[in-house]
Amino acid sequence: MWKWLHPYAKSEKSYALSGKLMPWFLVTAVITFVVGMVWGLAFAPADYQQGDSFRIIYIHVPAAMMAMAAYSTMAIAAFIALVWQIRLAEMTVAATAPIGAVYTFIALFTGAAWGKPMWGAWWVWDARLTSELILLFVYLGIIALYNAFSDKVLAGRAASILTLVGVINLPIIHFSVVWWNTLHQGATITKFDKPSMDTAMLYPLLIMIISFAAFLGFMSLYRFRNEILHRESHRPWVISLVQQSSTQINKRG
Amino acid sequence: MNPRRKKRLIITSSLIAGLSLAIGLTLFALQQNIDLFYTPSEIINGKNETGTKPEIGQRLRVGGMVVNGSVSRDPESLKVSFDLIDNKAGIVTVYFDGILPDLFREGQGIVAQGHLKSSNEIDAFEVLAKHDEEYMPPEVADALKGMDHLKTEQSK
């Protein structure tokens, strides 16, 4: 059943495939970003309570969702890396972590900027905000741990274990607004009910979510390819690839 | 699956399961301390399971809906007082001296932080507005007015 996947455990194959996919992710991200931003900021109606301030949702929600999506990706990769000991999965963990950390930071920052005018406070130690802050710290911990070892085999394994430890935070973030009294309101779209948002406001938000997801895909592939080149630099295929591109540069120059 | 992989699968899965259990139990034990605020009926009747009431003079947060018609402002200063209600019909009065957030209005969910003055009065030094997860244009909100679409409950 999984036989078709086996060739991609080889770094050369994965490097080629991600190179092919990358431009599609970038094109999708750019187009949906422009459409979503213009639609969301200029054409979507203002909210009945919050007026135009609610428009920060078009950055805040996609960033927060993708911060968690990036972590889920890393957790699955870490599990595969530990059980099947596939090095490319470890590289996926290392490649995705900084992107997830930046998304988490964006979510926290836009959340604070939104909280001040609406709630009246930049920061409140409620369960949702605190668990999101912990997610940022977990990301930073994974990045630090991976870079602390000069032996990358060991580094990959340690980072994978830490990733799996931190995965417990994901359901806590999602359900924090249900389990406890929080200042942060409940879920608008990620629930089984119909989204509690007018469709004129919802469509640009969905487009922005696609945009942030595509950009996450693009950036992780980009960093994944870098990580492969870095860790496989002694392999003949990488050496010949580097020689090829350097002769091309020499010819042009 | 070869035996070594199987062993690693079991170890990894039990790591996740064990950690989830540990964190789950910790959060369960801390459940009441993680709540950001008391609801008005929790101040009057105590928290659901334990029934412990907050002591007078204790610093706490209270969250509820501002009762319609209960907001009274002092014409000379910024002093304001209003009643908070929850879905279990507990009512507490909040006294506040300061600038209220933009979203503050009657029927709005708010969270106030302050000291408990008597069993149902709070001297607040901070008032935060809580908004719900519904977003809609003003025209839609007008059309829905009177249909009571806004949830009157603030907590479970």
Overview features:
heterodimer, A: 253 residues, 8 helices, B: 156 residues, alpha+beta, OB fold (Dihydrolipoamide Acetyltransferase, E2P), 3 helices, 6 strands, elongated
Largest sheet, strands/sense/barrel of chain A: none
Shape, principal axes of CA atoms of chain B: elongated
Looking at CATH, which topology of the largest domain in chain B would you report?
OB fold (Dihydrolipoamide Acetyltransferase, E2P)
User: What is the number of E strands of chain A?
Assistant: 0
The SS-based structural class of chain B is alpha+beta
**Overall number of strands of chain B:** 6
User: How many discrete structural domains of chain B?
Assistant: 2
In short:
The complex is a heterodimer of chains A (253) and B (156). Helices cover 75% and strands 0% of the residues of chain A. Chain A has 253 residues and is mainly α.
Tell me the layout of helices and strands.
The complex is a heterodimer of chains A (253) and B (156).
Chain A: H1 11-43, H2 57-84, H3 87-118, H4 127-148, H5 152-166, H6 169-179, H7 199-231, H8 236-252
Helix pairs in contact in A: 1-7, 2-3, 2-5, 2-7, 3-4, 3-5, 3-7, 4-5, 4-6
Chain B: H1 3-34, H2 40-45, E1 59-66, E2 72-73, E3 79-85, E4 91-97, E5 109-118, E6 121-130, H3 138-144
Parallel strand pairs in B: 4-6
Antiparallel strand pairs in B: 1-3, 1-5, 2-3, 3-4, 5-6
